[in-house]
Amino acid sequence: VPPSGKPVEFAVMDLTRYRDGLMFERWSLADALTLLQQTGALG
């Protein structure tokens, strides 16, 4: 997909778990479907 210069907006969620005061586990989830739709990558 060629660059369009247009801004995109999509949701991202980060979950971080701490154990004994230290970061123990981190998960991230992005709404890739919305991103692909806005960039025209899905047609």
Describe the structure.
With 43 residues, the chain is α+β, with helices and mostly antiparallel strands. The chain has one domain. Helix content is 19%, strand content 40%. The protein contains one helix and two strands. The protein has one helix at 32-39; strands spanning 12-19, 22-30. A two-stranded antiparallel sheet has the order 1-2. The longest helix is centred in the last third of the chain and has 8 residues, at 32-39. The relative contact order is 0.32. The model has no long low-confidence stretch (mean pLDDT 94).
Descriptive tags:
43 residues; single chain; 40% strand; 19% helix; Cyclase_SnoaL-like; NTF2-like_dom_sf; elongated; Ester cyclase; 2 strands; two-stranded antiparallel sheet; alpha+beta
Report on the biggest sheet. Answer: 2 strands, antiparallel
Tell me the helix content: 10-25%
SSE class = alpha+beta
Which spans of ≥5 residues are poorly predicted at pLDDT below 50? none
Number of strands: 2
What order do the helices and strands follow? Answer: EEH
Shape: elongated
Topology readout:
Blueprint: E1 12-19, E2 22-30, H1 32-39
Antiparallel strand pairs: 1-2
Give a brief description.
By secondary structure, this protein is an alpha+beta fold. It has one helix at 32-39; strands at 12-19, 22-30.
